Amino acid sequence: MSLDERVAEEFTTCFQCPPLFGLGASARSRRSGAWSCTAAVDGGMKANQAGKEISLGTPFQVTDQRIQTNDVIAERRRHVQKVCASNKAFIRAKKARDSAEMFRYLYVACTNWKRVLLIMSGKMNTTDPAKLRPRLVHGELGNRYLRRLVSYSPDEIDFRLRNYFKVMFVRSPLERLLSAYINKFTQSYSTYFRKRYGRKIVRRYREDPSEQSLQRGHDVTFNEFIQYILDPQTTESSSFNAHWRQYYKLCRPCIVNYDYIGKYETLAEDVENILRALNSTHIKFPASVASGTRTADLVNSVYANISSEEIHGLWKTYAVDFEMFGYKYPDFSRRL
After folding, report:
1. What gap in Å lies between CA 243 and CA 250, rounded to an integer?
2. Which of 140, 206, 241, 279 is the most exposed place for a label (fewest CB within 10 A)?
3. How far is CA 222 from CA 46, 141, 180, in A?
4. Cellular component GO terms, alphabetically (predicted)?
5. What pLDDT band is residue 25 in, cutting at 50, 70 and 90?
6. Cα separation of 122 and 187, whole Å?
7. Which residues does residue 170 pair with via DSSP β-bridges, in sequence order?
8. What pLDDT does 114 receive?
9. What is the largest CA-CA distance in the chain?
10. C-alpha–C-alpha distance, residues 264 and 231, integer Å
11. What pLDDT, on the 0 to 100 scale, is given for residue 170?
12. Do 91 and 3 contact (CB within 8 A), yes or no?
């Protein structure tokens, strides 16, 4: 199996890490719950190093020059490349061993990115992403119009990885963990995660759990979730879930040369830049991101109940992500 085929096999959803903006009319190779970490409108967005607008038979064009002249984005990309170069032996060993893994979700505005991509496909009867219901976005519409990279032929995969406009989004690792916990263990609709992971967490880390908790896994605490994340049985397992898997493993920025690396903290600005580059400024990305102040307050409050040893363990677990994407040791961790 070629490197590009391995990358395609490993990428299943990253519409937050949307690597290649690529939409197709077929989802014939879609596997259960898994989408391509390639996002893009099929056949449409090819980066043009000369900075000229081109089209490959779709209404969508990209002027790569608009992105490359952004000093902030250029510095993000340079920093990622620098970290990759300094960890080349480590990362090279990992990518060969992990070739059979499948990637699923990287939650940085996932639903809203899928909404935007569906509208860009030209198959929707609206230009307002907010009008597309989440249930349909993740279900019927997504299944029909959003295509996984692995569903293409080897030559098509190679072409897309080398030529399409590739986008990746990240956020602070510890904020991301808290977001994953809230979404997957405290919401009433997250029955799958409660049964798949919640019951296991309760069984492993809770003293004298109730029979109901063992059966439902519905009341996992954040402290128990952190114990699970730090457990060698979890971190050394190939089933380390994509919602909390390290970005450098999930989106493979040392293999895929992303044209744009966006951040949750600058989501509105980054989205505006990307849509402008794709000549899609008529699409308004839904404004659903909480303020930085509220997010910081919540993170500080929750992690105040996590021990210094566990904070340090999380730092080590996500050390490459912290370094690669420019995140510093958080304020509440200075007690170390």
Report:
1. 9
2. 140
3. 43, 34, 10
4. Golgi membrane
5. very low
6. 33
7. 263
8. 86
9. 65
10. 27
11. 93
12. no
Q: Which amino acid is at 158?
A: D
**pLDDT grade for 127, boundaries at 50, 70 and 90:** confident
Tokens of 100: 């059979």
User: How far, in Å, CA of 26 to CA of 48, rounded?
Assistant: 26
CB 278, CB 45: distance < 8 Å: yes
Residue 289 has pLDDT above 60, yes or no: no
> Does residue 63 contact residue 52 with C-beta atoms inside 8 Å?
yes
- Rounded to 5 degrees, φ, ψ at 169 are -120, 140
pLDDT tier at 194, thresholds 50, 70, 90: very high
Q: What DSSP line would sit under 105-148, residue for residue?
A: ---SSHHHHHHHHHHHTT-SS-S-GGGS-HHHHHTHHHHHHB--
Structure tokens given for 319: 């050390």
User: Which pLDDT tens digit goes with each residue over 166-186?
Assistant: 888 999 999 999 999 998 999
Phi-psi region of 279 (alpha: psi -120 to 50; beta: other; left: phi over 0): left
**What are the sequence ranges of the domains in the chain?**
3-171+241-290, 174-239+293-331
CA 19, CA 256: separation in Å to the nearest integer?
A: 8
Q: Which residues contact 304 (CB under 8 A, 6 or more apart)?
A: 332
Spacing of C-alpha 119 from chain mean position = 20
Task: Give the type of residue at 202.
Answer: V
Phi, psi (5° rounding) for residue 199? -65, -40
CA distances to 40, 196, 214, 221 from 208, rounded to whole Å, are 49, 20, 10, 14
Cα separation, 183 vs 193, whole angstroms: 10
Cβ 198 vs Cβ 172: under 8 Å = no
The 10s digit of each residue's pLDDT in 222-254 is: 999 999 999 998 877 666 888 899 999 888 899
